[in-house]
Amino acid sequence: MARFLKDRTKTQGAAPGSLIFIGQQKIARRTVRVIQYSTDSVKESAPDSVDKIRACVADGHITWVNIAGLHDTEFIARLGKAFNVSPLILEDIVNTDQRPRFSEETEHLHVIAKAFRVSDGDYKVQMEQISIIVGEHYLLTFQESDNDRFDDVRKRIREGKTRIRSFGPDYLCYALLDTLVDSYILNLEKLGAAIEEEGKKIFAAETNTIKEIYHFKTELSYIRKNVRPFKEITTRFLNCDSPIVNSRTYTYLRDLDDLVLQAQEAIEIYYTMVSDQINMFQTNVSNKSNDVMKVLTIFSTIFIPLTFIAGIYGMNFDHMPELHYRPAYFILWGVMALVTAAMLLFFKRKKWL
Amino acid sequence: MARFLKDRTKTQGAAPGSLIFIGQQKIARRTVRVIQYSTDSVKESAPDSVDKIRACVADGHITWVNIAGLHDTEFIARLGKAFNVSPLILEDIVNTDQRPRFSEETEHLHVIAKAFRVSDGDYKVQMEQISIIVGEHYLLTFQESDNDRFDDVRKRIREGKTRIRSFGPDYLCYALLDTLVDSYILNLEKLGAAIEEEGKKIFAAETNTIKEIYHFKTELSYIRKNVRPFKEITTRFLNCDSPIVNSRTYTYLRDLDDLVLQAQEAIEIYYTMVSDQINMFQTNVSNKSNDVMKVLTIFSTIFIPLTFIAGIYGMNFDHMPELHYRPAYFILWGVMALVTAAMLLFFKRKKWL
Amino acid sequence: MARFLKDRTKTQGAAPGSLIFIGQQKIARRTVRVIQYSTDSVKESAPDSVDKIRACVADGHITWVNIAGLHDTEFIARLGKAFNVSPLILEDIVNTDQRPRFSEETEHLHVIAKAFRVSDGDYKVQMEQISIIVGEHYLLTFQESDNDRFDDVRKRIREGKTRIRSFGPDYLCYALLDTLVDSYILNLEKLGAAIEEEGKKIFAAETNTIKEIYHFKTELSYIRKNVRPFKEITTRFLNCDSPIVNSRTYTYLRDLDDLVLQAQEAIEIYYTMVSDQINMFQTNVSNKSNDVMKVLTIFSTIFIPLTFIAGIYGMNFDHMPELHYRPAYFILWGVMALVTAAMLLFFKRKKWL
Amino acid sequence: MARFLKDRTKTQGAAPGSLIFIGQQKIARRTVRVIQYSTDSVKESAPDSVDKIRACVADGHITWVNIAGLHDTEFIARLGKAFNVSPLILEDIVNTDQRPRFSEETEHLHVIAKAFRVSDGDYKVQMEQISIIVGEHYLLTFQESDNDRFDDVRKRIREGKTRIRSFGPDYLCYALLDTLVDSYILNLEKLGAAIEEEGKKIFAAETNTIKEIYHFKTELSYIRKNVRPFKEITTRFLNCDSPIVNSRTYTYLRDLDDLVLQAQEAIEIYYTMVSDQINMFQTNVSNKSNDVMKVLTIFSTIFIPLTFIAGIYGMNFDHMPELHYRPAYFILWGVMALVTAAMLLFFKRKKWL
Amino acid sequence: MARFLKDRTKTQGAAPGSLIFIGQQKIARRTVRVIQYSTDSVKESAPDSVDKIRACVADGHITWVNIAGLHDTEFIARLGKAFNVSPLILEDIVNTDQRPRFSEETEHLHVIAKAFRVSDGDYKVQMEQISIIVGEHYLLTFQESDNDRFDDVRKRIREGKTRIRSFGPDYLCYALLDTLVDSYILNLEKLGAAIEEEGKKIFAAETNTIKEIYHFKTELSYIRKNVRPFKEITTRFLNCDSPIVNSRTYTYLRDLDDLVLQAQEAIEIYYTMVSDQINMFQTNVSNKSNDVMKVLTIFSTIFIPLTFIAGIYGMNFDHMPELHYRPAYFILWGVMALVTAAMLLFFKRKKWL
Asked: Could you tell me the fold of the domain covering B287-349?
């Protein structure tokens, strides 16, 4: 199966707006977590039906509904209807191969983004699609699996020390995106450290090194594909004039925009670095081959003439005058020493020794 | 014959607006399929003359006329006249080497696009030109061959469950283009899976692998050439203010625009991937050569001095004192063992072993 | 002499507007051909003086004057004066190393373009500068040699079947440019077919192939240099609001613009293809070297130890017990067979066999 | 640890605006230096509390406060509060991994820039973050360590000969940035001289050379990453219409803008040069390998046949007629001389000698 | 010393506007040449003080003052003061490492450009900075050395045949810049001819060729760095609305703009050509190595087995039945011939022969 484009045969021929889950199911059953907060209070719950979720949203707090697990498309369809979300957007939420993007609807802002995690031993990138729908008093997040990605934000809401409780869902959306981009940079730092580490090994020119470097390059391409469009999200978020976005939030969005730029520059720098490493590796392999060849050539060109001389006097001709000359054997050793010295001088001059 | 540019010697010297079919005839005889629909009813027919087609269009339904086979240029000229299509556009319909594009005429919208299919065994790309003319109550499609490309759309029209029956020919045009781009992504997914699969073989550095990879690169260039201008189609479609385009359709067009972008990014990513694979292959070949050379050098440099020593004592000089010294032969074995050990140590140090 | 920039030592120190012919004289004597036409009639003549040309232009028809041969700068200076053409433009007409461009003067439009032809056997590109001056009722063309480049246009004027006779000199200018771009595509198709053909040979990695490919790359660079600025011509032509350009002509110019784009994309695609071929060729050479080396290594590493063993028992020591052991010789053959088998197994494992 | 992205695990999960120092502490204790000046007088002091600093600023002079050492985040938080600096900006000051940027606040201009120094022996780049806050009558600078970077500016203030004393803090900010960019060019000149010097060694193709060149490339990437965004600073500085910036300063800023451009072009040129050197090095290694191989081939192909002939007449067959033919040995020497001559001729023709 | 960036240690710490000469002094003493002209008359002189120069300018002619030699910074400072030139501009005139640029001051236009000359034998580029200050009735030029660069312009002024005498200093400035760009193209033609000539040698793959090509690449980078910003000069000149520029001059400036574009395209084309040549050279080296290896392999693999066979029958075992079989020796020759034939067939099949 291709990794850069997911298999879409299931969606073939479906009308636009059909809800078909694409991707691997990463969780056994869908879970719903709701957090409701205002400047004064925080409530958490786990409602199990669309009606109960609807009820939470209606009670005056700011409500954040987190849905983990996207395979239950029917549930998502009902939820979408309850919140008046357009079918085209619902389709994108469950089709987990979407490009990151920001779109402004009449009642909502809609964000599709990617979260990724670089695994520890083998530096493999795990990608997950995160969809966010921002309404006037609520925010819905859709994740493929139930994880601790947004726990820091929850903690900040619960503790209530920071400004998050006094802002609206637009700031919550910013906080979630900020958490994502922060995690991009953390994970890039991890991958980058590995790349810089690997770079020190390229002069040894071992086969494993090149495999690692190539692996890093593929992973970086994969990250780049999914992170690059994030810049469009922040740009459009900054330029949207929806009443949902409070003017106080713009300062934070500009900060986020800068962070995204930094993440992207890091990706480009590591990508260039990896390309350079591959190029350098190749140079080193050539260099090594050259060394090997020199050793072969030096040994061969010294001993081949000597062996030839020995071969001559190993011949069995009846009439070979040198054979009967008493000091001949010792003279021969002398000749051989001379030949060897000449060859060594020759290599010295060529700077091979 | 060149594949990236079709032979145009037939059009040489022809005045602009002359109808000359360029390309291979892919179908024995032209076929015409008409589908007429409104919110309530669907009619299908296969009229065999321009007058009958004209009659269909006049009866109050939305009428989709599909012409398969473009070699009968005279028929297309008459049809064009009946629908008031400019000769320059008719010329482009039969000249199947046109760049994809969108143009807005007084009475029509005109789209030229490409459909392609990646064949199964050998991953060859088959390209076909699709032309669409959108009028106020009708839509004409021109294909090079009669195939099932748009059957899913026909099915949706027949079944009438989705919104297609309640929208105009502008939405039908969108639906057809959406089907094309969906098929781009499906076929790219197929090609991409093959490319990613091939990528796993590059460390073996076998000749067949490089042939395959080069083939993929050529096919991707071919796809890119024909898909890249599609972005201009969606952009111009979105920006055109023809009365033919209903404002409700824009949401769908924006979705299509995003899909095209995704297809293009996929092409670029696979193109880069294939370039990297070629580069990596080359590195691996160098690496293998290096290994081969090491084996040769180790063997040669160990045995060449030994053979020389053996050669020395194979000489037939009358006076060679060592020959008559009883333990000489065994001492020689010792010397040879020492030389070998020294060489092995040398290679060990150089990390060749 | 440089081909990409012509020798300009002759113009050194000359004041701007000096008429100095640069390039090779391609024709023995200058020829002038005049075609005059209106909706009803066509007249052809070959006047030999500036006055006669002036007279032709004055008689109410649309007049196309074609001058072949630019070395007679004095004639061109007089002609320029008669038609009120600025000296800077005349300078550019005879300096055949100009960049293609479109400029709008008070009384004229002025176009400099390049025509090229790919020769048959050796695929060499011959470039020629074409200058066009479009006035209100006349059009002047300047060519370096007298050839059949525009004969198709003349034929269409004579036959009078197409719209050319009812349009003005702006359409004639379009028709000439269209003929040029058509010939670009035809010649690119020719070169492209040769390139694609050559591409099939790269896996054989023969020296001739790389020479051919490199030749194609140079020719493509040369074409690109001269064709790339053509896009500016069509863009400026489309944007100029000179009274000389009839609004009916714009539709045709837009078509031409698209054709130029197609020619440029073809150049880029073939350029990339040739670059890929060179890269691929290099990979194949490395691959072949690897194969050669494997053969050498296999033979050497099998026979070198065997030869050493044979050398041992060719020594003449008085005391070598094995020599007198009767089955020793046959045992030795056995040992050698074992060594060979071991080596073959070793190569089998390394996948060199 | 990655060098291109600093480890941010400490900031993980922190709310935006939290002050967390990132980077290595480069100084034992924070130092504060204050210089106050007007057209007539200069005062210098080293206040040790926020209140004293506040007091300095209030006394009618232009006050420049330089803080060296950023690990004392609490002090910076208090200072920030005293000067009404937004927490997001304070966060960026202590997080020393920020992209260079210019931002305009209600009361301040805020600049983040990088200073770097190329070390002498090993050409390693040391990067330091410099933050500047420009208020109406004061300017704050934040450095990671206490160094002589801005001593030239201090000297000019003390001497009072130049225009610096009669301008405001906006000009002081320009002077500091100008000092930074001047030092960029000085350090690039140093690195560039080393690169150009190394370039002369590439034809010797020694392993150390490639290591050096690769080192230079990495350092240049690192510089580029930190200098490239500087252009945005000057552009935004020029376009800001804050009352803090006096119109007289714009001429100087335009000059600075040009200097930044020159620094960036120098980086690009050296980057290209280093890439070319790597490429050229690789070509030279191949060239050397080719030479080594030629020597091996010439020696081997001359002596291998000769040794074979000697081997033939070393055989012990009872019946070998040549052995008993008296002049055979001398004839054999002749044959060998002929073979050698033939081989030499062959190599001569191949231009290997 | 770095060539791409001149050593600026002398300017370190200097205030903006300080006049410090950077570069090599190319002339023993400064010379001043003044030419004064109007439609009717021409006067030439060589005043030796700022006052005399000032006096020349005041007398109603158009006055062109040419200063050669920039090391006398004090003189330039006084001259600048006399003509009201800003210190920042004077600083740039004597700092000969400036980027080419055009700036518009209240009383002057100011141009910094580069002149270069490709030396004959070794194709080294000599660069010189030319500064021009255009006032209402005068023009100042600053050169590093006293040469014949502008003699053609002087000649045209003296002869008075062309339009130069009837135009103002703006046209003179254009004429000087035109002379510079003409010389760019002439020198590029020279370098280009050498590059194209060198290109014919790359298939021989000799070490000198690659050195030459690399030299050309460096020189082209150097030219590019100094010529590329010239386009900004013509663009800004065309867009400036200073009263100093007469509207009649714009036609000429547009022509110049085109010439600059041609020079830049030539640089890019030759740069690409040189890069291709390096790449091609590398391919040819690999190809040659392959040929060398084939010769080695063919010889070795034929003779190594034969030598082994000869070795076998050179052994001294008491019991070797073949030795006593009378026709054995001749049979052996047959076997050897067979082995050789088999090997040759093998190589034939592999297409190595």
From this structure: Methane Monooxygenase Hydroxylase; Chain G, domain 1 (1.20.58)
